[in-house]
Write a structure and sequence with these properties.
Elements (H helix, E strand, L loop, with lengths): L1 E4 L8 E7 L5 E6 L8 H7 L12 H13 L4 E3 L2 H14 L9 E3 H9 L7 H7 L12 H44 L22 E2 L11 E8 L5 E7 L2 H5 L1
Parallel strand pairs: 4-5
Antiparallel strand pairs: 1-2, 2-3, 6-8, 7-8
Helix pairs in contact: 5-6
Length: about 250
């Protein structure tokens, strides 16, 4: 859902409302007469003048349809829900009507939290950030902004799903590496401290550290001693198995 209004303050009224479903089909798209004026600076943004509303219905005339449509929705996605919900309630109050509670979700806050370090921004800027096509949409029209909100929400879900998929892949990769390391550590003898310390430089040709040997080839090596890397970390060194000795 999205609205266009004749201002931002407590006296502002809704002058256009749009509602679409999650497939993009239009459920409500109408201008609405207002009792107050429309400042020129507001018309410069949404393109709506007082004359444009001369044949439009009044808010009470569309109130029941708005309530029915929004109440029947599982969730109403709104970019800057706090503002639009306030304008619905205060416009209703102006005419002595009671706007029912609706299950609304703010796409702006969702985007800010997940993609913009908690910072709020304009709808078009959020769409640009996620590379959403907007050239075919009339900006600052209620239905147009509904469509951008729908596209943004869908793109956010895809991005979040991809992020979760990559996170799960990384988790499985870490778990796999831990299991492999545990299996390779089983080749370290209990008395490993009694073996030579090769340090960082004194490594005979053909010797490999535990991390350099795959689990498939570790049977071709035997424990040789301890070592350290260039950062001073400890490690284990393996040497190729002496085949002739093993055959004897």
């Amino acid at each position: 859902m999205d609205t266009e209004t004749n201002g931002l303050n407590d006296e502002a009224e809704i002058i256009q409302i749009g509602v679409i479903n999650d497939n993009g089909s239009v459920l409500i798209d109408t201008l609405i007469q207002c009792q107050g004026d429309i400042p020129t600076e507001v018309s410069a943004i949404n393109g709506i003048t007082k004359n444009d509303l001369s044949c439009a219905p009044t808010f009470p005339q569309v109130f029941d349809k708005i309530c029915e449509t929004l109440k029947n929705a599982e969730v109403v996605l709104i970019y800057n829900a706090e503002f639009d919900l306030r304008l619905l309630k205060q416009t209703s109050k102006r005419y002595g009507l009671q706007m029912p509670d609706i299950n609304a979700s703010c796409v702006m806050l969702g985007y800010a939290h997940k993609f913009n370090n908690g910072k709020r921004c304009k709808l078009v800027d959020a769409c640009d950030d996620l590379l959403i096509y907007t050239a075919d949409v009339i900006l600052h029209s209620a239905v147009g902004d509904c469509e951008l909100t729908r596209r943004l929400n869908n793109k956010m879900k895809l991005e979040i799903a991809e992020e979760q998929l990559q996170r799960e892949k990384r988790r499985k990769s870490r778990e796999y590496r831990r299991k492999i390391k545990a299996k390779k550590l089983a080749y370290i003898p209990d008395n490993w401290s009694e073996y030579p310390d090769f340090g960082a430089q004194n490594r005979p040709s053909g010797y490999k550290t535990l991390s350099q040997i795959s689990l498939k080839e570790i049977h071709k090596y035997e424990f040789a001693g301890v070592c350290c890397d260039t950062y001073g970390g400890s490690g284990y060194l393996f040497k190729p198995v002496n085949k002739q000795f093993r055959e004897i």
